[in-house]
Amino acid sequence: MLNIALFGPPGAGKGTQSKLLLEKYNLAYIATGDILRNEIAEGSELGNKAKEIIEKGGLVSDEIIVQIIENNIKSNKHANGFLFDGFPRTLVQAYILEGLLLKFNDSLSCMLSLEVPKNKLLERLLDRAQTSDRSDDTPEVINYRLEEYENKTTPVAEFYKDKNVYIPINGVGQVNEVFDRLIAAIDTVIQESWLNIVLFGYPGSGKGTQALHIAKQYKLVYISTGEMLRSEVEKNTEIGKKVLPFMEKGSIVPDEIAIKLIEDKIRKNPKARGFIFKGYPRTLVQAYILDGMLRKMNSGVSCVINLEVPTLEVIKRLAARSKTQKSRKYDMSTDVIVYRLEEFEDVTIPVAEYYKRQNKFFSIDASGPEDEISEKVIEEIEKARRIIH
Fold it and tell me: What are the tens digits of pLDDT across the range 249-268?
């Protein structure tokens, strides 16, 4: 998901730019002040607690704030991500946000800081005070607010600079000029983020062909469990001897073997910025395993592209492949082909449901020419990249 913290002093233009960013990237808006007022207005349990504290002249605790934010995240399951405005404001809140997003298997994509000179901020805030008829917004009060902001938030900026996700943005200029700068920064973050793709579909749907195209297009490391297993069989290794009976039937090999082969492949590519998986995961357990392996690298599955091909068409493709040099042992028998398709229905469909719940599952019609299918796959990947980190 695309999670952005919009940072900047009072008068930097966060409110104006937030509205534009929310619309462009389909993000859910989390402004602690707004949601706190909403909770109080609705008379929720947390809202009543906050109201009681405020009426006594106290500050609402981080514990209450984080519960309200967590509730908002849970209630926006279909958002492409979240835009945090006014949070985090302290180093403690920065750590809280890290932990909260980790709870949802996510992280902050970037902190965008609107940089505006102090004299310009003072000018904007004084103008705003006049138009909103706020007599308490005197130069002295505004100066105090700006100094307080700087003192409290400097450690927050340093925290995200250390994580290499802090991006300063020139906040001076017309609204559309500042917005264009923000978009350029966000698009760079999206392009530089890890890209881990799973190609999904029936045996014979063209996953191998398309995986190679996509690996080349995005400079990803191609991981095919089938190819790695066949290599082990050809070399007559201990692994090859163990998996041969499973492969002859077209069955799923034991998970511990697939894990070893995939982890070896990942280790051999330490500079990779992403992987494309073909033939894995095939079960729900394997989906959990893949999540675990990628989490070790502070990453995760970016998207799953499902190649939809009619059942009769894939049977024809597999039968035709059995007559070529690309044939597999399990292509030679119609019974085995049917068994593999039935196994896909029984075992692999729950994997699709798992990724659908995460809004990471994209389907295309893969029954046309290879180049047309590739264009469709790339289109879906680009769509996914706009909503993922």
Answer: 778 899 999 999 999 999 99
Percent of the chain with pLDDT over 70: 94
Peptide bond into 139 cis (omega under 30): no
What confidence tens digit (pLDDT) does each residue in 197-208 have?
999 988 888 999
SS3 content of the chain, % helix, strand, coil (to 5): 60, 15, 30
Whether residues 377 and 232 fall in one domain = yes
Burial of 219 (0-12, 13-18, 19+ CB in 10 A): exposed
Domain total for the chain?
2
Distance CA 242, CA 253 (A): 9
Pairing mode of beta strands 110-115, 166-170:
parallel
The tokens of 376 are what?
């469709």
Q: The pTM is what? A: 0.66
Does residue 37 lie within any of the structural domains? no
Overall residue count recorded for the chain in this entry: 389
Which tokens sit at 277? Answer: 């998986």
State the residue range of the domain holding 177.
Answer: 2-27+79-192
